[in-house]
Specification:
With 103 residues, this protein is mainly alpha-helical. The protein contains six helices and no strands. Helix content is 76%, strand content 0%.
């Protein structure tokens, strides 16, 4: 509740938004995490961690096309930085088993 109050007072406080979303994810409150993550994405679409979380949340909600979009964005961002995280490879492999990658 305190974090929600801070976010209302400072709506572009990215670290607070991410912390609130992470807290919801840890509590398995995915439905509440999605709009918070989306809000962060609207402020800064270049954070690979947020794109990764959005991909996972969308997959959990059976929105596989959106999940692939966010995963592609996370991969693009990390590729530009010369980084190839194992978490993204793992998510890609998991998504492939659930839903084929859109063309």
């Amino acid at each position: 509740k305190e974090l929600e109050g801070i976010i209302k007072k400072y709506p572009k406080f990215r670290a607070g938004i991410l912390q609130l979303a992470t807290t919801y994810l840890q509590l398995a409150r995915i439905g509440e995490a999605l709009p918070i993550l989306t809000r962060y994405h609207e402020i800064d679409p270049n954070d690979p961690t947020v794109e990764y979380y959005l991909s996972i949340v969308c997959a959990e909600r059976y929105d596989f096309n959106k999940s692939w979009e966010y995963l592609h964005q996370a991969e693009k961002i990390t590729e530009e930085r010369g980084h190839h995280p194992a978490a993204l490879r793992g998510l890609r492999n998991k998504l492939r088993t659930i839903c084929p990658e859109p063309a």
